[in-house]
Amino acid sequence: xxxxxxxxxxxxxxxxxxxxxxxxxxxxxxxxxxxxxxxxxxxxxxxxxxxxxxxxxxxxxxxxxxxxxxxxxxxxxxxxxxxxxxxxxxxxxxxxxxxxxxxxxxxxxxxxxxxxxxxxxxxxxxxxxxxxxxxxxxxxxxxxxxxxxxxxxxxxxxxxxxxxxxxxxxxxxxxxxxxxxxxxxxxxxxxxxxxxxxxxxxxxxxxxxxxxxxxxxxxxxxxxxxxxx
Length: 229
Prior knowledge:
Low-confidence stretches: none
Order of helices and strands: HHEEEEEEEEHHHEHHEEH
Structural class: alpha+beta
Oligomer: single chain
Shape: elongated
Helix content: 40-55%
Mean pLDDT: 86
Distance between the termini: 55 Å
């Protein structure tokens, strides 16, 4: 595609592309595809040939796999100016190991795996930035596995609420935040049923620990929430 200055700018702002020179950025964009998708459209499905990874310009994309009983296990929801499926280019399977589907109307760039890996060999700083990003993802997944293995559903929800509150306002006595995705997607991310997630949220609200207004959550009693049994 034509290397429009807007796309050069927004890619340059992402740490995985910041070290590329102008010629390399131009080459990456020229060999990429600009895609506009409606809500619910598939970017790719599990098992499709893995030829590219995505950069979200605007909108939102969920990455998930289906469990044997047909339930969605959501790994991540990717928002504006973030990438997804970059790790899959190094897995050697030749196919996507998960499905990517839009949560909102979304515009994104599909960046060529072949082009990007060639640029990695040419640019050490970019290679190190990618390695750092993949390491962070690995530690996040290990933490999620620990939570899923050691905590019951209520504690998973509480840990999630506390983590989101900390991200929103670490020093607020009564922090408020908006769930970054629909409640059913949060439930899938935590490997619990949407009904279970709603029941836990309502229970914490009834006990005066949190206040819920749609997707907005306010922690009223952090101590009780942190020490909830």
